[in-house]
Automatic annotation (TrEMBL), chain E:
<protein>
    <submittedName>
        <fullName>K+/H+ antiporter subunit F</fullName>
    </submittedName>
</protein>
<keyword id="KW-0812">Transmembrane</keyword>
<keyword id="KW-0050">Antiport</keyword>
<dbReference type="Pfam" id="PF04066">
    <property type="entry name" value="MrpF_PhaF"/>
</dbReference>
<dbReference type="InterPro" id="IPR007208">
    <property type="entry name" value="MrpF/PhaF-like"/>
</dbReference>
<feature type="transmembrane region" description="Helical">
    <location>
        <begin position="6"/>
        <end position="22"/>
    </location>
</feature>
<keyword id="KW-0472">Membrane</keyword>
<keyword id="KW-0406">Ion transport</keyword>
<keyword id="KW-1133">Transmembrane helix</keyword>
Automatic annotation (TrEMBL), chain F:
<keyword id="KW-0812">Transmembrane</keyword>
<feature type="transmembrane region" description="Helical">
    <location>
        <begin position="7"/>
        <end position="25"/>
    </location>
</feature>
<comment type="similarity">
    <text>Belongs to the CPA3 antiporters (TC 2.A.63) subunit E family.</text>
</comment>
<keyword id="KW-1133">Transmembrane helix</keyword>
<dbReference type="Pfam" id="PF01899">
    <property type="entry name" value="MNHE"/>
</dbReference>
<dbReference type="InterPro" id="IPR002758">
    <property type="entry name" value="Cation_antiport_E"/>
</dbReference>
<keyword id="KW-1003">Cell membrane</keyword>
<protein>
    <submittedName>
        <fullName>Na+/H+ antiporter subunit E</fullName>
    </submittedName>
</protein>
<feature type="transmembrane region" description="Helical">
    <location>
        <begin position="31"/>
        <end position="51"/>
    </location>
</feature>
Length: 945, 503, 110, 128, 89, 165
């Protein structure tokens, strides 16, 4: 449970500054520091237990499907890292308290910092691979926020994005790698993984896994060639750089390599890849550190270099190398954090980090100068400082590496070279800033910072010295525990300053001497280096991202193309392919049932339909003619339904056909009357082929189904229509009873169409043509007199017919839908014959409520069955006898059908009449906002229906 | 009432719609109250149903008291209950958000919204193939109307593509249903599934043709690769609450694929088992690739989110294409996450656009926003979640998906999912830093946003955290749902064999 | 007869599809309408072709399969609603964009 | 059904068919639109009328009770057919369709000098 | 006898419909086509009546009634379209 | 809004509707008479507002005679027209005639125009907007005056008498 608190406290700490952001900075800083301090204390309190060899674990289940547990461990390695993370974190907090300007949102900064700390602690304590990955990515995110903290600076934004992209990409690779690793080990639990080294290394996927995991580690730890984000992350406020880029985040990659060391490091592949990459990084970073003119730039590249050093050690992987690596982790954290903070102080006090504006600061800032010098000495590996110890161990290990065979001299040589460069840039750093006279004046006149701001540096420098002088006393236990954790067994070692005169010592001495000379001559080499400087990683990266975006845009424009014709082609092609795949599996196209004999009327119908269809397509450029041709199809489809025993369908099709015609003509009025010739002949041929092929496939499927016996559930409907549904017309009983739910949906669709169309007609700007397609002026006779009188006569008859069709629907062809359409069409005839103005006066009910009422009636009918304990839409019917009238049937289905009727009338009128009205004074008004409508007390006469 | 619970997800929005649509204008308060109350009621119903389904039993509701396969039956299993809940959660966020002012930009918003919910819920519940068509049409037509809410050229133009393609799709749907009916003689999916067992060989080809035609239709709704083109512009131009609700629309297509093929073409289907699998698998990967490119190319936040939706479609369909209970479970978890988060992001985009004023959601420099910090925080959370980064649900979903892949599937899925994730990461960091960091100096722009909008957006985005905290229970549920889905005989027995075939 | 019926459906489908591939909205709408007619015929025939025997249980004893008929009826209604919407959408699109190209990009050449 | 009734029905049917045929024949082969209009308006209407009467007679004789439902269709046709024809003629005149040369009388609509060449927007038609 | 008469009538009606189709196709002008279509509607009433006699059923009566009614309205609409463009004004 | 107060504004018309209803349902069962009667009352009430000027039949008997005469004319006329059409050697003399109208009511003009269209060789082609004259197309007519006279005497006068006097 303590472990959970250790991990949790920093996380809770995120809230503290966020909640205290409004208070004074002092309160805010202190409050923020509280929780991590407790967590650090708790961590330190575990040391005795660890020393006794206890395994500290905590686990609760989280996502078993992913084998993910909230599993924490505290072993030596975690201990080392926790101390670094929280210890240095607290110092950074103190430092930042002074560093940030008074108007900067310190609460937010602390919150980000705590988030980062929490995720680092999480990484260090994770006892589950997936959990580790979660925290891993969280560090990328929080570092993104921290680097971009000064978001008004373009450098900060770009640096942050670059860091996020690179480490995020690495994180994704790491996820893949860890999933593989877990799969190979059979568990995501760290303990299991660490114990399955043999299995893992024997697995054929090992190289892939290793590559992915190392990709994660290398990007995070800024290893060559993924180092380029780190220098640009220096756009962050210095406390961030000091924390993230010296002590913690970049060490996450190192941590990962150390953590997984027992599981995956026992192979040559590991040694070769890791030490080579490490070496390259070591040298590359050191080289560029020597020539940077930005104080933090130097530190950034030196960090890259030192991370390379640690990586080399982990690559070598011998017990002592591991020890050295861990030791250097500790040492680097101390001196580099100190150096960053000093750099921050200098920047803070002088207003610049450019070397050419700095110089001779030892007078103004003697204490800082001293501290910096000491820390730099540690970095350079000067004896008596901690850096010396670990670096010498590094040299020792490079001499022992067995892998490179005949080239075994190479690694020590390169290591020495790294040492030389390291001495040179350390020297340069100190000399140029404090001792050499400045070439330009800095923006601010420098003086010593507040003492408390320097305090963290002082503590760290003292640590450098103390560890350097008394390694056995200060670091042994910690390193012992950490090494045990990495090696999974105790290691017998002794830290000492003096090992006698040996080759490593010689290498150190050589590095110191040659490094000094090198600094002396570094100007010459700078000329040589200049030619590489034009390659600015960030610019390359930015350009790369922009180029990718641009290419992506180009690709999409070409690929998607915003062309409906293309999309339709794809859709139809897909349908064709799919249908064809089925069709080729149909062994015998003509099924057992075969063909029925053909007769003349059927041939006539087929001729009419085929002709009508082709003519509709062929005349499509003359739109009205095309519509007339479509009408043939509509009529003959209805007749086909009649011919094949579907009177209800014939009726429906007929009424819909007429309404569709009216509708299409209403709309065509506002559209061009002809279609220009646009498609190339080739395209036409292609379209005809595509349409024809799909048509052929569908015809074949149709034929195949038609010539097979029908095996349908329909006999049930026929049998139950009268006894169960109370109607003789099975189709109608299906519609209002067996499948009344479909019908309810269907009238909802119809009402929705009316509503949607109302929306479309709103704020419609019209192109009203003054003449027809041929340029003829319209006839002046708006309402031909003969038509008007006939429409009067037809309306009552039509209503009567409508009532007739409605009432008999249950037993004979008919029903609410057809009746509704007849009513609607008759009313539309009135609109056509008499005009909107006239009809409006007489049809003064709004259409929308009618349509909705229809749906409501149908729904309520369905709900009524609940009262009797039956499911929704259960129908009932009964026979009643009245005097005079005699026996008659009443069915709830009739009520349901009434709903259908109302919905159809309302919706059809909403569609047609509203569309017709757009050219008149009664057009749907530009939609007011509902607020306006509420406040305006007098509804206008132009209220749309 | 409790025995009618299954039909309530359809009936509640239907009645709410009726109440809301009866009067077209005015009564703003009344309409908002009705709409929010109805949606909340829907949420309660969905929770109740989830509870009911969690028992592991498949239950059904025979509409009109006509037993399956003759009448239409609503089928409740773990999957449909989950989809209902996700929809209800999304709807609550969207509808509250809309009360912040979007509902007044045109007529009938709330009514149409309710009916859209009715269509979606119906599609999730129905056990009948033709009824599925009907509900598809309900939800489509409602979506057409809602897409146009507020008007504007971009909306109209993107609607043309969306509508025409879907109309053609509806025709294909009817053809597919027709062939399946002609070949099997039934419309009830469970009945159809049970008939697959003794399907005569001469009908197999027909069934294949019908099933694959349907796959084209579902693929169109789900927005799989050669058929996704309608999506980006339509989603990007839709009004925010509508776009948010649209986040579940592609899932309807995915649901349909999952439902129809796992039930009808399950292990009882013999030769025809998993006939959709190769198509779904390979095309989903291609979708992922295209969506990743789209994410990189998007120059507008809404368009970016639309492509993120597409990434989720690709990922989910890949899960469908893996056709294993593990993958199904993973995809269900991912589906909850992605639906709610992309929905929330659409809302957030609208808020950002509102505050930025003229530049809107275009990724260009603008003035700093009045509520910039809060919006930035929300964006950060949403972006993390949607990009699949820890500690939010996207990371879990992605990890589950990747982990569910087996053997050679891994190579493809991992590469594409991870690359798409990287593309999202790059694009989102670019978008975020442009919107919130790269601003002109000068006056703050925008008025404070309505509380409703904050609530709606936060409601959806906060789900991500809950999904993380309760990852275990959620994944237990999805695992059980996946197992249930992998065993079609459960549904067949309940609906067909045990019901006895007569009323 | 079945062959002729199938050919008819196929031709109607093909004609409708050809029109849906055109570049202007109105022909596309006409094509969709034609397509829906064809699809209705297709769906209708899935219960077989019965030349005498409407599904009225009080008349005669040969029955056409009533189920596809009910489905087609629903499909006709829905098809009508959709056609109505899309044609008015086309009209609206023309008023917004100034031409009736399906992508709204080309200049009106009339 | 008695032979006479059957004969009567058959005669009516064939007469009706013949009229229907002639009506369409006129529509197909006469030489200008105005002439073609005559066939469908009269002959076809009467033809359908005959067939409907035949149908009435048939069902009357079969069911044994008066069945004059079809009268309604006839009624509808007789109301609507002339109106359709009228409107079609009006349309033809509006479009100034050519008539054959031998036609006597020249209605206003077809006199070329009455209307200028350029279309003049009708005063009724505003901009909407 | 009746069936022979039915055949003859059917043949006449079919020929009439084919002639309608002919006129509808060749036009030459819009009103010709509209006229042809209108006639086609009316002639199809004949088809329905004959079908009823053939099947000995009155099931299709309403179809004929509807064709008579709706064919008219459809023709009115097209005429109005040609005359005025705006059919509801 | 135009409302009518009477519950049975047009008894004759209602009777006609009842008759049509009984035709439709093919039954004279009491139930249908009740239902039809109800509809015959309701529908005129609903549609009454659509009649701007309801024509009144002054002389019903004359109307009956007129109807019979027209029916007879239709039949004879159709044989005539059929002959004209079917005989390819017959040379036709089409003729446009402007017919000056005596009738004033729109409804009666419509009746006249319809009658003209249904009867021998004539189609009413256009009613002038002022309602003063009717353009007639005759299929085969040489004597314009005779045609006008025939229409006047045979149809227009009776109509005038039946409705308008
Ligand atoms: Na019916
Ligand atoms: Na109009």
């Amino acid at each position: 449970m303590t472990l959970l608190w250790i991990a949790l406290l920093p996380l809770l700490g995120v809230l503290v500054p966020a909640l205290n952001a409004q208070r004074s900075r002092m309160v805010c800083s202190l409050a923020t520091a509280l929780l991590p301090a407790i967590a650090l204390l708790l961590t330190l309190m575990q040391i005795p237990a660890l020393l006794e060899g206890e395994a500290l674990r905590f686990a609760v289940g989280w996502l078993p499907e992913l084998n993910l547990e909230l599993a924490l461990r505290l072993d030596g390695l975690s201990l080392l890292f926790n101390i670094l993370i929280m210890g240095i974190g607290l110092l950074i907090l103190l430092y930042a308290h002074f560093y940030l300007a008074s108007d900067e949102p310190v609460g937010r900064f602390y919150a980000f910092l705590m988030l980062f700390m929490a995720s680092m602690v999480g990484i260090s304590m994770s006892d589950n691979l997936i959990l580790l990955w979660l925290f891993w990515e969280l560090t990328s995110l929080s570092s993104f926020l921290l680097i971009g903290f000064w978001s008004h600076q373009s450098d900060a934004r770009k640096g942050a994005r670059m860091a996020l992209t690179v480490t995020g990409a690495g994180g994704l690779a790491l996820l893949a790698g860890l999933l593989l690793l877990g799969d190979m080990a059979g568990s995501f639990s760290m303990g299991d993984v660490l114990a399955s080294s043999d299995r893992i290394i024997a697995d054929s996927r090992y190289p892939l896994m290793l590559g992915l995991v190392l990709l994660g580690a290398f990007t995070k730890s800024a290893q060559f060639p993924f180092h380029f984000w780190l220098p640009h992350a220096m756009a962050a406020p210095t406390p961030v750089s000091a924390y993230l880029h010296s002590a913690t985040m970049v060490k996450a990659g190192i941590f990962l390599m150390a953590r997984l060391h027992p599981a995956i490091a026992d192979s040559e592949l590991w040694t070769v890849v890791v030490s080579l990459v490490g070496t390259a990084t070591l040298l590359y970073g050191a080289w560029f550190a020597l020539f940077k003119t930005d104080l933090k730039g130097i530190l950034a590249f030196s960090t890259v270099s030192h991370l390379g050093l640690i990586t080399v050690l982990l690559g070598i992987g011998s017990p002592m190398a591991v020890l050295a690596a861990l030791f250097h982790i500790l040492n680097h954290a101390t001196f580099k954090a100190a150096l960053f903070m000093s750099a921050g102080i200098i920047d803070h006090e002088t207003g610049t980090r450019e070397l050419k504006q700095l110089g001779g600061l030892k007078k103004a800032m003697p204490v800082t100068a001293l501290l910096t010098t000491l820390a730099a000495a540690a970095m350079a590996g000067v004896p008596l400082f901690n850096g010396f110890l670990s670096k010498e161990m590094f040299f020792t290990e490079t001499l022992k590496t067995p892998v490179l065979g005949g080239l075994s001299w190479l690694l020590p040589a390169l290591a020495t070279l790294g040492g030389i460069l390291s001495v040179a840039y350390s020297l340069r750093l100190v000399h140029a800033v404090f001792f050499k006279p400045a070439r330009e004046a800095p923006p601010k006149s420098p003086h010593e910072p507040p003492h408390l701001m320097r305090l963290p540096v002082e503590i760290l420098v003292v640590l450098c010295v103390v560890i350097g002088l008394l390694p056995a006393l200060t670091a042994t236990h910690l390193l012992d525990l950490a090494t045990q954790a990495v090696l999974q067994r105790p290691l017998d070692f002794k830290l000492a300053i003096w090992h006698g005169v040996n080759l490593p010592l010689m290498m150190s001495v050589a590095a110191l001497l040659i490094g000094t000379v090198l600094y002396w001559r570094h100007r010459d080499m700078r000329l040589f280096t200049r030619q590489f400087e034009s390659v600015d990683a960030r610019r390359v990266f930015e350009r790369f991202v922009v180029a990718i975006g641009y290419r992506a845009e180009q690709f999409l424009a070409a690929f998607e193309g915003n062309s409906l014709q293309r999309y339709m082609t794809l859709l139809l092609s897909a349908a064709f392919v799919m249908g064809l795949i089925g069709l080729v599996q149909v062994t015998d196209l003509t099924g057992a049932a075969g063909n029925q004999p053909i007769d003349g009327v059927v041939i006539l119908g087929a001729v009419m339909l085929i002709f009508g269809g082709i003519a509709t397509a062929a005349t499509h450029r003359y739109r009205l003619i095309s519509l007339l041709m479509l009408s043939i199809v509509g009529l003959f489809v209805a007749l086909t339904f009649a011919r094949f025993s579907a009177p209800d369908l014939a009726l429906t099709q007929l009424s819909v056909e007429v309404v569709t015609m009216i509708l299409l003509m209403l709309a065509l009025f506002f559209l061009p009357q002809k279609t220009p010739q646009e498609s190339s002949p080739l395209r036409n041929v292609r379209d005809i082929l595509l349409a024809g092929s799909l048509g052929l496939v569908i015809a074949s499927l149709n034929y195949a189904v038609l010539t097979r016996e029908t095996l349908s559930i329909s006999s049930f409907f026929v049998e139950n229509s009268k006894p169960g549904g109370g109607g003789y017309n099975v189709v109608n009983v299906i519609l209002v009873d067996f499948r009344g739910f479909d019908t309810l949906g269907e009238i909802t669709v119809l009402a929705l169409a009316g509503l949607a169309i109302f929306k479309l007609l709103n704020r419609l700007r019209l192109f009203i043509p003054h003449s027809d397609g041929e340029g003829r002026v319209w006839s002046p006779d708006r309402y031909p007199a003969i038509l008007t009188s006939v429409s009067m006569t037809i309306l009552p008859l039509a209503l009567l017919v409508s009532a007739f069709i409605f009432l008999r629907g249950h037993n004979q062809p008919g029903g609410g839908f057809i009746a509704g359409l007849i009513t609607a069409v008759a009313l539309i005839l009135l609109y056509m014959a008499r005009g909107v103005e006239w009809a409006q006066e007489r049809l003064d009910f709004p259409f929308q409520p009618v349509a909705i009422m229809g749906v409501a009636v149908a729904t309520l009918t369905g709900l009524g069955s609940w009262l009797f304990g039956y499911p929704f839409l259960t129908s009932s019917f009964g026979y009643f006898t009245l005097p005079v009238v005699g026996e008659f049937e009443l069915a709830t289905a009739l009520l349901f059908d009434l709903g259908v009727y109302l919905a159809v009338v309302g919706a059809t009128l909403m569609i047609l009449a509203n569309l017709g009205k757009v050219t008149t004074a009664h057009r749907p008004v530009p939609e007011q906002t509902e607020k306006d409508a509420e406040t305006s007390s007098n509804p206008t006469s132009k209220e749309p229906r | 009432m409790i025995q009618h619970l299954i039909v309530l997800p359809v009936v509640v929005p239907l009645i709410a719609g009726i109440l809301l649509l009866y009067q077209r204008q005015g009564m703003v308060r009344y309409k908002r109250i009705v709409s929010v109350v109805a949606t909340s009621a829907l949420l309660l119903v969905a929770i109740g149903l989830l509870n009911q389904a969690a028992s592991g039993e498949v239950t059904y509701y025979a509409l009109g008291d006509w037993q399956p396969p003759f009448g239409i039956a609503l089928v409740l299993d773990r999957l449909s209950a989950l989809m209902l809940l996700v929809t209800a959660l999304l709807a609550v966020g969207a509808v509250v958000f809309a009360c912040g002012g979007d509902d007044e930009k045109g007529s009938n918003f709330h009514g149409l919204f309710q009916w859209q919910l009715m269509g979606i819920n119906g599609a999730f519940l129905t056990g009948d193939l033709f009824n599925l068509f009907v509900f598809f049409e309900v939800l489509l037509l409602a979506s057409y109307a809602l897409l146009l809410h507020g008007g504007g050229k971009a909306r109209i133009q993107s609607s043309v593509h969306y509508v025409v393609l879907n109309l053609a799709g509806s025709s294909l749907f009817l053809i597919g249903v027709g062939i399946l009916y002609g070949a099997t003689g039934t419309l009830n999916m469970a009945d159809m599934a049970s008939r697959m067992a003794e399907l005569p060989a001469e009908r197999e080809g027909l069934v294949v043709a019908g099933a694959l035609m349907l796959l084209v239709v579902f693929g169109l709704k789900a927005a799989i690769l050669p058929l996704y083109f309608w999506l980006p512009r339509a989603y990007a131009s839709a009004p925010a609450p509508v776009a948010a609700l649209f986040a579940v629309m592609t899932k309807v297509g995915i649901y349909a694929i999952l439902r129809v093929y796992s039930l009808v073409f399950g292990d009882q289907a013999g030769n025809l088992e998993a006939l959709e699998q190769p198509w779904v698998w390979w095309l989903s990967l291609a979708t992922l690739a295209a969506a990743g490119i789209g994410v990189m190319a998007a120059r507008d936040l809404r368009l970016l989110i639309a492509y993120l939706v597409l990434i989720s479609v690709g990922t989910l369909l890949a899960g469908v294409g893996m056709r294993s209970p593990e993958a199904t479970s993973a995809l269900l978890y991912y589906l909850i996450h992605t639906t709610l988060i992309t929905g929330g992001l659409f809302l957030l985009a609208e808020m950002i656009g509102l505050q930025r004023g003229k530049p809107g959601t275009r990724l260009v420099k603008g003035r700093p926003m009045v509520q910039g910090s809060a919006l930035a925080l929300a964006f950060f959370i949403g972006a993390i979640a949607v990009a699949g980064l820890p500690p939010l649900s996207g990371a879990f979903g992605k990890a589950l998906m990747l982990n569910a892949a087996e053997g050679s599937q891994r190579l493809w899925l991992w590469t594409l999912v991870l690359l798409a994730g990287l593309a999202s990461l790059i694009a989102l960091s670019r978008a975020g830093s442009t919107l919130f960091w790269r601003s002109h100096r000068g006056h703050l722009s925008g008025r404070p946003l309505p509380r409703c909008q904050w609530f709606g957006m936060a409601w959806l985005l906060s789900s991500s955290l809950l999904l993380v905290v309760f990852a275990g229970p959620v994944s237990d549920y999805t695992q059980a749902a996946a197992k249930q889905l992998a065993n079609p005989s459960l549904v067949i027995d309940t609906l067909i064999n045990d019901a006895g075939g007569t009323q | 007869m079945e062959l002729l019926y199938a050919i008819t459906t196929g031709v109607l489908t093909a004609s409708g599809l050809y029109l849906t591939l055109r570049g202007r909205t109105f022909p596309v709408v006409v094509g969709l309408t034609l397509l829906s007619y064809a699809v209705n015929l297709f769906l209708f025939s899935m219960g077989g072709l019965t030349t005498d025997g409407a599904a009225l249980v009080n008349e005669g004893d040969g029955f056409a399969d009533p189920l596809p008929q009910a489905l087609v009826l629903t499909a006709i209604v829905i098809g009508f609603a959709m056609t109505a919407f899309v044609v008015i959408l086309a009209m609206r699109a023309r008023s917004e964009v100034g031409n009736d190209h399906v992508d709204g990009k080309k200049e009106d050449r009339e | 059904m008695s032979l006479w009734v059957e004969a009567f029905i058959s005669l009516l049917l064939i007469t009706g068919g013949a009229f229907v045929f002639v009506g369409s024949l006129g529509m197909a082969h006469l030489r200008d639109f105005y002439m073609r209009l005559h066939g469908p308006t009269k002959a076809t209407t009467l033809g359908i009328g005959c067939m409907l009467v035949a149908s009435m007679a048939y069902f009357w004789s079969i069911d044994g009770r008066p069945d004059i439902q079809e009268l309604l269709i006839t009624l509808f046709l007789f109301i609507t057919a002339p109106v359709s024809a009228h409107l079609l003629a009006k349309t033809g005149l509006h479009l100034r369709l050519k008539h054959i040369d031998i036609t006597q009388g020249k209605p206003v609509e077809l006199r070329s000098e009455e209307v200028g060449k350029k279309p003049v927007p009708h005063p009724d038609k505003g901009h909407g | 006898m009746l069936s022979i008469a039915l055949y003859i009538t059917l043949a006449l009606v079919v020929m009439a419909l084919l002639m309608n189709l002919y006129r509808l196709t060749i036009g030459p002008d819009l009103p010709d086509r509209v006229l042809a279509l209108d006639t086609m509607y009316v002639n199809s009433i004949a088809l329905i009546v004959l079908l009823g006699l053939w099947l000995n059923s009155k099931t299709y009566f309403e179809s004929a009634l509807l064709i008579a009614m709706l064919g008219f309205i459809s023709t009115v609409a097209v005429c109005k379209y040609i005359l005025r463009g705006d059919i509801i004004e | 809004m135009i409302r009518s107060r009477a519950w049975l504004p047009t008894p004759v018309f209602s009777l006609l509707l009842l008759f049509v209803w009984l035709l439709l349902v093919r039954s004279v069962a009491p139930g249908h008479i009740v239902l039809g009667g109800a509809l015959a009352i309701i529908i005129p009430l609903l549609t009454n507002r659509f009649w701007d000027a309801r024509p009144r039949i002054k002389k019903p008997l004359l109307l009956l005679r007129f109807v019979l005469r027209v029916l007879g004319d239709i039949i004879t006329a159709n044989f005539e027209v059929a002959y004209l059409i079917a005989n390819p050697w017959r040379k036709l003399n089409p003729h446009f005639v402007e017919y000056p109208l005596m009738l004033e009511e729109r409804f009666t003009i419509t009746l006249l125009a319809s009658t003209i269209s249904l009867t021998p060789g004539t189609v009413s082609a256009n009613l002038r907007m002022d309602g003063k004259s009717l353009l007639i197309h005759a299929l085969n007519e040489t004597d314009e005056e005779a045609l006008i006279e025939q229409i006047r005497e045979r149809y227009e006068r009776p109509l005038k008498e039946i409705y308008e006097c």
